[in-house]
């Protein structure tokens, strides 16, 4: 009986030592939600290399990679645009996940130097939810045909 318990503990210890702590409790990608006021704004997400990784219409939820290589967190730029509103740009940054330091106790050097850095699970993206509140632009239109000037102000109720 004692031998079975010791064998079971040995299997658990070996399993944990071959996995990274952050990799065990999280993934190499993360869901990010982007919404806009007003709804229906165009959203483009580019990575640190400047490549567009996603485009769509707000509100949306997208799965983004947390890292861009060995010991390199990913960083994103989110551009939100809608006609009649000033465009907005927002950052999503990768930072070290607290679970990464669990390797000191559970994952050991293999988890800390190999597994978690390779899977990029050692990072967390923030913010997880991005709310883009777009500011309306004042529109001024000149019509040379009838020599008129049209000025309109668009107001948005941010409480909606």
Number of domain modules: 1
Secondary structure category: alpha+beta
Strand order of the largest sheet: 3-2-7-8-9
Uncertain regions: pLDDT < 50 for 5+ in a row? 6-23
Count of DSSP helices? Answer: 3
Oligomer: single chain
Radius of gyration, in Å, reads 24 Å
Overall morphology: elongated
Average predicted local confidence, pLDDT: 74
Number of E-type strands = 12
Biggest pleated sheet:
5 strands, antiparallel
Strand content: 35-45%
Order of helices and strands: HHEEEEEEEEHEEEE
End-to-end span in angstroms? 65 Å
Question: How much helicity do the residues have?
Answer: 10-25%
What does this protein look like?
The protein is an alpha+beta fold and 160 residues long. It has one domain. Helices cover 21% and strands 42% of the residues. The protein has three helices and twelve strands; from the N terminus they run ααββββββββαββββ. It has a five-stranded antiparallel beta sheet with strand order 3-2-7-8-9, with no helix packed on it. Strands 4-1-10 form a three-stranded mixed beta sheet, with no helix packed on it. A hairpin with a 2-residue loop joins strand 5 and strand 6. The N and C termini lie far apart (65 Å).
Short description:
The protein is α+β, with helices and mostly antiparallel strands. The chain has helices at 2-17, 21-25, 108-119, and strands at residues 29-37, 42-46, 52-57, 60-65, 67-69, 72-73, 75-81, 88-96, 123-126, 129-133, 138-143, 148-153. Residues 6-23 have low confidence and may be disordered.
